[in-house]
Design goal:
By secondary structure, this protein is an alpha/beta fold. It has two domains: 10-183, Rossmann fold (3-Layer(aba) Sandwich); 190-240 and 249-387, Up-down Bundle (Dehydroquinate synthase-like, alpha domain). Helices cover 47% and strands 11% of the residues. The chain has helices at residues 40-43, 46-56, 73-86, 97-109, 189-208, 214-236, 241-260, 265-276, 282-300, 304-314, 322-335, 353-364, 377-387, and strands at residues 10-13, 30-36, 60-67, 90-95, 137-141, 154-158, 163-167, 176-179. Helix 4 (97-109) links the parallel strand 4 and strand 5 (137-141). The N and C termini lie far apart (44 Å).
């Protein structure tokens, strides 16, 4: 038995933890606070609360507020330029996965020359080593979906080529993360569901991946259990603090799973969809393809025992076959009101599914190598075809 365990982030988890930010050893004297282009971070008071905490700590700050639900490269470069011009020596990602992912990429480009895509290893990326360490990153999550507060990964879209590609290495782990479920109470039901399923799939993929190890397995099964127990409750009643805390913990555990194991081709296939259709929420895209995706692997019988274990963790305690996981997954999607999502509602054309399947392999082909059994181009196309409506 061999495995590596490296998650160097200090995590403050629990109700009210944002109020402890000022008492932490912060990694600099001026922060660039990265938030989304939407209104909620300001209107819910989260930005002002973070600014107050930084003021109490004697840390000055600037704000970059242009991040889209699917972050784009041009905003990474613009944010990095602002960090340099403002003299910022660390970056705070405040918001959902998009804002924190963008904060990581901005931190890299604030200290390095050239273009962000110079350092990307997939698609048209130039695969150059990153010469200088990024600025330190602090992550404050207001959603429970990506787990980016506990992993080094960031996903960005290059707009002109429709390439949505992940990046990260040990220097892009946040040095400090705050996971305060109180900040998630205002997330609307449909986004709670999308984000919760994203967290779920980080763990289901990490559990099935060839890269899984005994530690990632522990985290993955616990995360799956927490989502099965509480996601539908959080969707039905966003003020249910216990349910919010369960889903928040599942999300953080799933981030650790991503750090220790890997996502699989499910994420590659969805990234291709949202690379071309930026308005498609990542979690929604994953939900759309998940039934066909996991049915495919159930039918291969390559990972029956693991799929049965996931079904039991998700709440189907009498599971005895791989397809029981698919049934449990579909039941949870119905309970959360997201079982009828349609690709066509987001402008996806069924005639382009081969293009999306090819894009997935060209831009994030590495995740296909983590699949429990090889997924061919034809398999990928069929999964998208079976998912389309």
């Amino acid at each position: 038995m061999q495995f590596d365990y490296f998650v160097p982030t200090k995590i403050l988890f629990g109700k009210g933890q944002l109020s402890n930010l000022h008492s932490q050893k912060l990694p600099g004297k001026k922060a660039l606070i990265v938030i989304s282009s939407g209104k909620s971070t300001r209107s819910n008071g989260y930005l002002s609360r973070v600014e107050m905490q930084l003021d109490l700590a004697g840390v000055s700050h600037a704000v970059f507020d242009k991040i889209l639900p699917n972050p784009i490269k041009s905003h990474v470069m613009e944010g990095a330029a602002l960090a340099r011009s403002e003299g910022c020596d660390f970056v705070v990602g405040l918001g959902g996965g998009s804002s924190i992912d963008a904060a990581k990429a901005i931190a890299v480009m604030a200290t390095n020359e050239g273009d962000y895509w110079d350092y990307i290893s997939g698609g048209s990326g130039q695969r150059k080593p990153v010469p200088n360490d990024p600025l330190p990153i602090v992550a404050i999550t207001t959603t429970a979906g990506t787990g980016t507060e506990a992993d080094p990964w960031t996903v960005t879209t290059k707009e002109d080529t429709n390439e949505k590609i992940g990046f990260g290495y040990e220097k892009t782990f946040p040095v400090l993360s705050i996971v305060d479920p109180d900040l998630m109470l205002t997330v609307p039901p449909h986004l709670t569901a999308y984000q919760g399923f994203d967290a779920l799939f980080h763990s289901t993929e990490g559990y099935l991946a060839k890269t899984a190890d005994p530690i990632s397995d522990l985290f993955a099964l616990k995360a799956i259990e927490l989502v099965g127990k509480s996601l539908a409750k959080a969707v039905a009643d966003g003020t249910d603090e216990a349910a919010r805390a369960d889903v928040a913990l599942a999300n953080t555990l799933s981030g650790m799973v991503e750090s220790l194991s890997s996502c699989t081709s499910e994420h590659s296939l969805e990234h291709a969809l949202s690379a071309f259709h930026h308005e498609l929420p990542h979690g929604a895209g994953l939900i759309m393809i998940s039934k066909a995706y996991y049915t495919h692997f159930a039918n291969t019988h390559a990972c029956d025992e693991r799929m049965i274990a996931m079904a039991k963790a998700l709440g189907k305690t009498d599971a005895s076959s791989a397809m029981d996981f698919v049934q449990a997954l579909c039941d949870l999607q119905s309970a959360c009101g997201v079982a009828e999502l349609k690709m066509s509602d987001y402008g996806i054309d069924g005639a382009n599914l081969e293009k999306y399947a090819d894009n997935a392999r060209q831009t994030m082909g590495g995740l296909f190598l983590a699949d429990p059994v090889r997924l061919s181009r034809e398999d990928s196309i069929r999964i998208l075809q079976e998912s389309f409506r």
